[in-house]
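A quick aside before the break. I want you to see a complete sequence-to-structure record at least once, exactly as it would be stored in a machine-readable document. Don't worry about memorizing anything.
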Amino acid sequence: MIKKALFTVALFTGAFAVITAVNPLKAGEKEDGKNLVLNLKGTAVGVTRPIPPIDGTQTSSATCFDVQLIDPESGRVIGKGTDCLADIVPHGNGLALTATTYFQLPGGTIVTRGRTTVQPVLEGSPSMTHITGGIPSDNNILFGTGRYKGITGRARLSGAVNLSQLMSSNEITFDCLFVIEPDQRIK
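That is the input. The structure line, written in tokens, reads:
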């Protein structure tokens, strides 16, 4: 009887493992397969790199920061994120800029672009100096590769950064959440 029960548990566990291995949720994706939630997190020194030209200004290079890409639900590293900042304009105590962001995931890369607001933190975080945000009004996904080829949709940003070392060492610490809302289901 015990052997039969152990066999049944082993069979069930094995079947569950096979189902999970064949049909896993992709890191950061909602169960419906539609939205991605990604956390761009870490500290990096900026390096000037080429980017696709920005409409309106034709800016074709930016200061880019490579950090980890984290699944916010599990806390696991799932790829690399690169945030490239250009067309920076001061506004009062804050800034407005264009961010071209590369999300390098195991299944491919998604590249987004949007205008971002950066404002000083008023309360709440001794480790972060500024709050960031970007709300798209239309498609701001530039392109995708791999399983994301042909992707269109919107990417929304809400985050925090530490700019205290930016002037002295060109370093930024990021803790930014992105919600990528594709127009079509990700396969």
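Two observations worth writing down. Residues 1-25 have pLDDT under 50 and may be disordered. The chain has two helices and ten strands. We'll return to this after the break.
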